[in-house]
Design goal:
alpha+beta
């Protein structure tokens, strides 16, 4: 039609049909628009409410963890060590002294010429750390310093042993280190040559047996100084000597007794003399661990008590390091165990992470206390307690999430007056049964009293309901409750019939797959789909109405045209009749 006037009638058929079609379509379109708007609003509002409920469920699940109430805190009064406690730790306070840290072994082997042409005789290097060992075969393919280094790194990777090359004034040498700490875990290198390949340097030069020496106190009486009876216990690696000292024995006789007992066991003694007097020097080829302890047995003959042989405070066994002048091998770091005292009880650990001293507590040693602090008996305090902070934080998160849900529900169900005589604005979920059921179920659980001793209701913890339905926390009352009845609160929240258990079950009915929210959103989605179907049906019906109206008005126009033509023909015929007088218009 496109706005064309009727040929016969001159009527604007297009405008008339359009007006009639719009009048036919408008009521149904308006109805569908209103339904679509309200359905979309409800769909969106339910999505917002579901989001708030999901946040509440997360906070409920975080508070519904019995393990959270068994978590322990561990604090240290000094940076000397840190502590970590697991759920088996007993709350309490412990006093700790750290006298020695655990360290791992590091050695430098005999240096050789730094010339690239330096090679070694073929054979086998057996590298051991404590009770474990591995072999490195030296052949013509790897008998250079770098070749041996690479072979050690390849073979020792699984045992924590690595090698590098260090060059000093004496030449280049292999430096071996291990990640295994603790007394007795010194690196040792045994070598055997097989005579297959000859190099510029004998492979046996790389053999190394760590040793230690311990200097005992000096006596002004010289090597003939005498001692009262007792016992001298010497520990050198895996060797323990028990030297009996008789009344009146001299420093020389004690030396001889040590050498006799230690013969073939890698332990010996010598006497050093200078202007200040004489002293025993103990030596061990069994590693870097070497200690001596003298105890008296009550003898009276001798100018010195045997206990005078005990090493002076702070004096420990030492090992000779690599020599940059002669190229001799030596110990860079000796393997030793951590030594600490927990409430006065001595603890020895191969690692600086000590988990065996206090049940459920791991002590991570960072440094040794200063000599003055140790001499003064100062200790590091370790305090083990229940983790009330995390519980309190999760209670606050639960209250915040619950209040967020209440506020969201209030916004979606509110009726707001916008002015006098104006229609109020209503929320998308006003009167919605889902909202009423949800809030009613949650409130019923919150006010329900549970049996047993201790906490029975939120109000007893300082959590009360306000006029607007939200919760408020009395911080001081909550803190007091946690301090006085922590286990009872744990039972109230997480027991078999605990508050969080019940709340989670209630909330899950709404949030689970095919739960209340799923069913509601599916129904609303179905409504939106039906609206689309109705719009399509309406469009088809309107097309038919339009086609019918066009056909009717077209037929009318043709009829009018025909009648007009007939009228004009009759008028012309009449005008041609005799005696017809045409009146002037």
């Amino acid at each position: 039609m496109a706005g064309i006037l009727g040929v016969g009638s001159g009527i604007d058929i297009d405008s008339i049909v359009t007006a009639l079609v719009n009048a036919e379509k408008a009521p149904k379109t308006l109805q569908l628009d209103r339904l679509e708007k309200s359905t979309t609003s409800r769909f969106s509002a339910l999505g917002t409410l579901k989001g708030s409920l999901s946040s509440l469920q997360t906070s409920i699940q975080n508070l519904n963890k019995p393990s959270m109430f068994t978590t322990r805190t561990a604090t240290s009064s000094s940076s000397v060590l840190t502590a970590k406690a697991d759920s088996t730790a007993v709350a309490g306070k412990y006093s700790v002294q750290v006298q020695q840290l655990a360290t791992s072994s590091k050695i430098g082997l005999q240096s050789v010429s730094a010339d690239a042409s330096t090679t070694f005789n073929s054979g086998t290097m057996t590298i051991s750390v404590g009770a474990s060992s591995f072999d490195v075969d030296v052949t013509a393919a790897n008998n250079s310093l770098s070749g041996i280094r690479d072979s050690i790194n390849a073979e020792g990777k699984g045992q924590g042993v690595s090698a590098t090359i260090v060059t000093d004034a004496s030449g280049s040498r292999l430096v071996l280190s291990t990640s295994k700490s603790g007394e007795g875990n010194d690196i040792k290198v045994a070598v055997s040559e097989d005579g297959v390949t000859s190099g510029t340097v004998a492979l046996v030069t790389q053999a190394f047996q760590p040793s230690a020496s311990l200097t005992l106190p000096t006596f002004a009486g010289g090597s003939t100084s005498t001692f009262q009876s007792g016992n001298l216990a010497i520990s050198a690696g895996g060797v323990d000597l028990d030297i009996a000292v008789a009344d009146g024995d001299s420093l020389e006789s004690i030396r001889d007794a040590i050498n006799t007992a230690g013969a073939g066991q890698g332990v010996s003694a010598s006497i050093e003399t200078d202007a200040s007097g004489a002293r025993l020097v103990l030596s061990s080829a069994n590693g870097t661990a070497l200690t001596a302890s003298a105890t008296a047995s009550g003898g009276t003959i001798g100018s010195n008590a045997l206990t005078a042989l005990n090493p002076e405070g702070g004096v420990a066994a030492t090992s000779v390091g690599p020599n940059s002048t002669t190229g001799a091998a030596g110990v860079i770091n000796k393997a030793q165990s951590a030594v600490l005292f927990v409430d006065g009880l001595k603890v020895v650990s191969d690692s600086n992470s000590v988990s065996s001293a206090i049940d459920g507590v791991t002590l991570n040693l960072a440094s040794v206390q200063s000599g003055s602090d140790l001499a003064a008996g100062k200790t590091v305090d370790i305090t083990i307690g229940v983790d009330k902070g995390t519980v309190k934080s999760n209670i606050q998160k639960f209250v915040d999430a619950y209040n967020g849900l209440i506020k969201t529900a209030a916004q979606q169900t509110a009726v707001v007056q916008v002015g006098e005589g104006e229609k109020p604005v209503a929320g998308a979920l006003v009167g919605d049964a889902t909202v009423r059921g949800l809030l009613s179920g949650l409130r019923n659980e919150l006010v329900k009293m549970t049996g047993g001793e201790g906490a029975r209701a939120l109000a007893e913890l300082g959590i009360t309901t306000q006029k607007d339905g939200t919760l408020a926390i009395d911080d001081s009352k909550l803190t007091s409750s946690l301090d006085g009845n922590f286990e009872g609160i744990a039972e109230y929240f997480t027991g078999d019939n605990g508050l969080m258990v019940r709340l989670n079950a209630s909330v899950n009915e709404y949030l689970k797959t095919d739960g209340v929210f799923d069913q509601r959103t599916k129904a609303l989605q179905g409504t939106l789909t039906n609206i689309d179907d109705q719009r399509e049906a309406l469009d088809l019906r309107i097309e038919k109405v339009q086609a019918r109206l066009v056909a009717q008005y077209t037929a009318m126009d043709q009829l009018v045209a025909n009648l007009t033509r007939t009228s004009e023909a009759l008028t012309n015929q009449l005008a041609s009749l005799p005696g017809f007088v045409k009146k002037d218009s």
